[in-house]
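Worked problem 6 (solution included).
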Amino acid sequence: MEDEEKLEKEIVPLVAKYCSQSEHCSPDVRKKIKELGGHSLMAERIIGRLEKEKFLDDARYVRAYVREKFSINKWGRIKMEYYLKMKGLPQPVIEIGFSEIDEDQYVKLLVKTMKGKARTIRKAGNYEKMGQIIRFAQSRGFEPELIHRYLSDVI
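Solution. The predicted structure is:
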């Protein structure tokens, strides 16, 4: 029991530093705690403490992640949602992050992405060109219904 308390007292400052250096989510922190030798019950206690002290906030992490992937990587919602679910974050928290995206900006990014791809396609008929643009936009994580809605603006 004393060894466990000692280990927890050693882990807390390390994990707090880890959280203060950059934004992390609770599944990442849980993994870090286990790497440092903690067990799942200890991880839950430490995560609760870090959340209470505002070192850790999954909603804040998701908002930052969505802003970064949207503005820097030019990703669509599907791709972002996939990666956030892979981290183990719940759907309601992911939806909070998506509220950060302005719908007009999202559509502008989609159209810009599709136009950029259309300029790079050479020697293709209209049908093949549309197929390549659709596949490219889907690989960036944009919704098929939006892609098809704005495809006519691109071609």
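Discussion: The chain has three domains: 2-56, 59-98, 103-154.
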